[in-house]
Write a structure and sequence with these properties.
globular; repeat; 20-stranded parallel sheet; NosD_dom; Pectate Lyase C-like; single chain; 33 strands; eleven-stranded parallel sheet; 447 residues; mainly beta
Length: 447
């Protein structure tokens, strides 16, 4: 009996010591947490971008060499950086058959310094919504559904920088149900809906800046994108419509409100050689539809043959409390129009300190109604000037190639920075009125 107990004790002691020897020490655990980020090179280390992304862990860089890659790249992991070594020669090509070029559903992901072209839906889609098969969902996707905050919390942190998006059949670069991010220094053309889109976020905490959007149906669209939402220093020219800021019941968070649009060049938006969409607004620079308490300041709005800026209703959502100040208007069919419906009349909108010559109604700029009071007096409305029917557009895949675009500073050797802590400091009050040459060197029109 006694010997049996000793044998049992020795056996148990051996098991405990063995287990202790297998357990990681605190140092080993710390080393695992402090894993050095890796660079995975395509095609040297992985033959496709998708394989490389599948191997990547948070903090890693997937670095892609020049080539044409026929794949959809899905990035579900957090804090991955996807970068091309050459913006103009690293091309993710949908061949007119794939739906999306890059789909980001992980938080803190950065996509930079490459080209996406010829996809049926989106060039780059950043979204907090996923289908059961892991595909990203957004407005326009198959199976789109309204946001359920419990089911699909917003993606937190994203950046799309120095990306060229050409000839994509819905949106060029699309952030949906995503907060805390930046879209900057991109070029979008041939978008059959819009080149740049931010939708369904509140508070967004998103900056859209220093981009060129041309030869799209719409240059920029912000639908139900509210609070801490900045659209700054972009060149929006030669689209069918320059930009829209709007409310839409097909997305959550109606009404849209409290965005800042400042320092943008919005000119010559009546381009027939674009995809045929948005023709109800053909020839308009800025459309504010059911938009509320927005600031539109220090923009150059010129050469839009129907109207420079139009305030209108969106179903039963009125335009209220918008401040239009210190903008320069010229060569527009009419500079500024208040066209709210009787169903949803506009209130509290004001135009102050603008350089403009024509408005509809004629006394629009003299209506001193700069107020967020939705119960204030109804503003007089007018109909935007009529134009001939919008010209037939062209298929999105027939839009010409964009010009060569500048590389991201540092290129392949730039520091690896996942998209965290964004968008960073924003001082929209200091954004100046742009010149007509804003980003002209990166534009196909060049003027």
């Amino acid at each position: 009996m006694f010997r049996g107990r000793i044998a049992l004790f020795i056996c148990l002691l051996g098991m405990l010591l063995a287990a202790a020897g297998c357990a990681p020490s605190n140092e080993e655990e710390g080393a695992a947490k402090a894993r050095t980020p890796q660079t995975i090179r395509v095609p040297r280390d992985a033959r496709t971008i998708g394989i490389a992304v599948g191997r990547a862990r948070p903090g890693d860089l997937v670095l892609v060499s020049p080539g044409v890659y026929h794949e959809t790249v899905r990035i579900p992991a957090d804090r991955i950086v996807l970068r091309g070594t050459d913006r103009n020669r690293v091309i993710i090509d949908g061949q007119g058959t794939r739906r999306n070029g890059v789909v980001v559903t992980g938080s803190g992901v950065a996509v930079e310094n490459l080209t996406v072209r010829d996809h049926l839906l989106n060039g780059v889609l950043v979204t907090g919504m996923e289908s059961q098969d892991g595909q990203g969902l957004a407005r326009g996707s198959s199976g789109y559904e309204r946001l359920d905050p419990e089911k699909s919390p917003p993606l937190q942190g994203f950046r799309v920088s120095y990306v060229t998006s050409a000839r994509n059949g819905l949106y060029g670069i699309y952030a949906f149900n995503a907060h805390n991010g930046r879209l900057d220094h991109n070029h979008t053309s041939g978008g059959a809906d819009s080149g740049l889109y931010v939708g369904q976020c509140k508070p967004c905490n998103v900056v859209v800046s220093d981009n060129v959007a041309e030869y799209n149906a719409v240059g920029y669209e912000g639908t139900n994108a509210s609070e801490k939402m900045w659209v700054l220093r972009n060149r929006l020219t030669h689209n069918r419509v320059g930009m829209t800021v709007n409310s839409d019941y097909l997305e959550a968070f109606v009404p849209q409100h409290s965005a800042v649009v400042a320092g943008n060049l919005i000119t010559d938006n009546a381009e027939p050689k674009t995809p045929q969409q948005a023709d109800g607004g053909f020839g308009i620079g800025i459309g504010l539809a059911g938009s509320q308490r927005n600031t539109v300041r220090n923009n150059r709005i010129e050469g839009n043959p129907r109207a420079g800026l139009v305030l209108m209703s969106a179903e039963d959502v009125p335009p209220t409390g918008n401040t239009i100040s210190s903008n320069t208007f010229s060569r527009n069919g009419v500079d500024a129009v208040h066209a709210a419906s009787d169903r949803a009349p506009g209130k509290g909108n004001c135009l102050t300190d603008n350089a403009l010559s024509t408005t509809a109604p004629k006394a629009l700029a003299a209506q001193p109604q700069c107020s967020t009071d939705a119960d204030g007096p109804v503003m007089t409305s007018a109909t935007p000037p009529t134009q001939p029917a919008a010209p037939a557009g062209i298929p999105f895949r027939m839009v010409p190639e964009p010009p060569q675009q500048p590389q991201m500073p540092g290129g392949a050797t730039a520091p690896v920075r996942p998209a965290t802590g964004l968008p960073g400091p924003v001082d929209a009050d200091r954004v100046p009125l742009p010149g007509r040459d804003l980003l002209a060197a990166h534009s196909r029109s060049g003027s």
